Amino acid sequence: MQAVPPITISRLDLGRLKRLLANPMVRGTDAADALDDELERAAVVDPTALPPTVVSMNSRVRLRERRSDRELELTLVYPDDVGPDRVSVLAPVGSALLGLAVGQDIEWPLPGGRVAQLTVLEILYQPEAMGDLDV
How far apart are the C-alpha atoms of 108 and 118, rounded to whole Å? Predict the structure, then answer.
């Protein structure tokens, strides 16, 4: 298991995610506990101070799976917005992506106990960088 990389999140995302975690349908689940652990260790900044190279909520990111060298694009979303290429922040890969910067790696658990190693290659869209703070 690799070391946990440092993460940065915006104060706005922190508030929204804390409200999500307070929801009785979410609170106390393994996914909520994992996300809460991520939030507890994050450096928190104002939305305007979030570097454009950091994955925030509703960011579209390009990733590379190191073993296969395959690239994929995902958007990090809230649970109600999940769809094709849109991963929930409550999914293991979603909570692991939150706050990562370009160049950082995460491990993504796969079925059968395997683990994919993903590298953040590029932030294709980040709401804070675009001034879209209402998304």
Answer: 7
In tens, the pLDDT along 24-34 reads 999 988 889 98
**Segment 39-78, tens digit of pLDDT:** 999 999 999 999 999 999 999 999 999 888 999 999 999 9
Tokens 């106990």 belong to 113
108 burial via Cβ count (<10 Å: 0-12, 13-18, 19+): middle
Higher pLDDT, 51 or 132: 51
